[in-house]
Amino acid sequence: MKGIAHPHxxxxxxxxPLRPMQSLPDMCxxxxxxxxxxxxxxxxxxxxxxxxxxxxxxxxxELVDSKLPWLCTMCGRCEHACPMGINIxxxxxxxxxxxxxKKVPEMIQKGIELGLKTGNNxxxxxEDFVFIIKDVAEELAEEPGYSGxxxxxxxxxxxxxxxxxxxxxxxxxEDLVHWWKIFHVAGESWTIPTENWEGVNWGLFSGDNDTxxxxxxxxxxxxxxxxxxxxxxxE
Length: 235
Prior knowledge:
Elements lengths: L10 H5 L17 H5 L10 H9 L3 H6 L2 H4 L5 H5 L6 H10 L8 H13 L7 H16 L18 E3 L3 H5 L3 H13 L3 E2 L10 H5 L2 H17 L4 E3 L3
Parallel strand pairs: 1-2, 1-3
């Protein structure tokens, strides 16, 4: 028997969410669903359930001093799987934020420092970035159907601000072309900023909320300065 969709059938779901995402850690059932959903459970002793348990037992220092928070990829699958909606990712971010900055993994800390100084974690100067992007665009322009293609830099009033993941500029240039082809065929109005173009928020990964906000503010500034309607975020 098929149910009949009522025009207000979603009202109850909105008023009574199926999963209380603001639940406290002490609601943990120790069911292990988070661990089953985690792609790295068992690697170097990592286990989301163990991390939640450590927090419940007041073992904050032990957690912060361990390598466990930094093994996490922060994909959020554990949190999505949790029947109690425990904010496991935030627990891990909080532990990372409590870590002495000198003990933050070098790759992440270096990404923060270069991002703050140069606008991208590669430390790539503006002129080099523009050269790389133009070079990839010229290759696309040689393909049938894309004659005259150019990347619109700092275009005011565009519909879409296209921030980039550093790997698309550093090692995987060809992946940029897939997006550009879609934009071109769809007639999309888009743009790429020439400065502070990286969309990866290294403050987020490090647990440093002030730095995270600083990187977000840069993107907001682009949106406001160029009067952009929508954001395309690579993460």
